[in-house]
Amino acid sequence: MFETEKEANLWLAELSVSVAHGKKLVAERMLFSDYFWQAYQVFKRRSVAATTEDTYRYTLRYIKKVLPKVTMRDLNRSLIQGFFNALSDKLSHETQRKMLSQIRSVLADAVDDGVLPHNPARRITLVADPNRTKKPDAKFMSREDFFKIQTFLFDYKYRLSDVNRMALFVITQAGLRAGECLALRDEDLDYESNTISVTRSYDSLHETIKEPKTPSSIRQIQIAPEAMLVIHKWSMEHRKWLFQRGIPNPENLLFLNNQGELPRSRGLNAAYHQLQIRLGIEAKYSTHTIRHTLASLMLDNKINIAYISKFLGHSSVQITQQYYLSMLPDRMEQEALKAINVTSIAK
Q1: Selecting from 1.10.8.60, 3.50.50.60, 1.10.490.10, 1.10.443.10, what CATH number does the domain 138-332 have?
Q2: GO molecular function of the protein, one example (predicted)?
Q3: For 280-316, what is each residue's pLDDT tens digit?
Q4: Nearest CA among 144, 143, 204, 149 for reference residue 173
Q5: Do 270 and 150 meet the contact criterion of CB atoms below 8 Å apart?
Q6: How many whole angstroms separate alpha carbon 30 and alpha carbon 11?
Q7: 104: left (phi > 0), else alpha (psi -120 to 50), else beta?
């Protein structure tokens, strides 16, 4: 494994030279697990989010567990298929699909570099235990449960230790991604127009603030005046609390905690799970589910899908349509009935 990115790039340069001179032996003898992680560091790391890096680490862990001694030279389709067969009763179909996509991508790089003659992960069949596969409706919270969470967060009396809960409040009002929310500063809030400007995102894995996911993620979101009052009160109190404790906050970050740090996305999800349990909600939804739920509620209220797409920061209306309409079969059935009525009248 590499200690630094410089070492990883040096490995890539040496590998390219070796392959160019017909010396593939070193790469072929590498453990698949080592090659997978080193290729990730060289080709993928700079272009993926923190949560995506977590999934690569997750895949690496299973490669080490199931294929601990397999080298690049050993790899073939049967081994890769056997790897996924061994995981069929442990992981959901969606998790396996993501793992296969990552393995295919890394092995495609190996083919391009001349390490492998072909990609052994091209034609792999995934089989998963249906009981471990997340049902589509689990990505949406019911209107009643969501309202219960919104009400609790609106009425809650916040203290400095409640950074995670205040971040959850903002997400339930503005539908932000977790990283977008955690990167907010006081200057991103316009208390007169009740708008939140999204211009940055916090990568909690690398502890850096960077540009949002896509250019379309840069947007302004208008929220209810009463919600902005809650945020405004938090901003003033938060600044006072930090000053009293001698915690510097030169950027006026909205969610700096009492350790002088921004929360991690995992901590935010954990706080959300705890809140659900406290309110008697059985299923554990992630913070990203809030975005799905808000979008579904907007669709149910016949809000224009172009606005919903802009609200969520999607790169196109088509993405919003493909994702949310496919996840709302009842809504699609209703629209189909309307269409039938129109065509029958036309006759």
Answers
A1: 1.10.443.10
A2: DNA binding
A3: 997 678 898 898 889 888 888 888 888 988 998 888 8
A4: 149
A5: no
A6: 12
A7: alpha
- In tens, the pLDDT along 100-156 reads 999 999 999 899 888 899 999 999 999 876 665 555 445 778 889 999 999 999 999
- Domain segments of the chain: what residues? 5-130, 138-332
CA-based nearest residue to 142, from 17, 260, 300, 249: 300
Q: Looking at beta carbons, which pairs linking 169-173 to residues 24 or more positions away fall under 8 Å? A: 169/227, 169/230, 169/231, 170/196, 170/231, 170/254, 171/287, 171/290, 171/291, 172/146, 172/290, 172/294, 173/223, 173/224, 173/227
Paired strand residues for 222: 195
The residue whose two tokens read 């205040």 is 166
pTM: 0.65
252 sits in the region (left: phi over 0; alpha: psi -120 to 50; else beta) called left
Q: Which structure tokens are listed for 239?
A: 């600044």
pLDDT digits (tens, 9 = 90+) for 259-288: 999 999 888 999 999 999 999 997 678 898
Q: 5, 13 in Cβ contact below 8 A?
A: no
Question: Regarding the domain with residue range 5-130, which homologous superfamily does it belong to in the CATH classification?
Answer: Tyrosine recombinase, N-terminal domain (1.10.150.130)
Q: Which strands, in side-by-side order, build the sheet including 195-198? A: 189-190, 195-198, 219-222
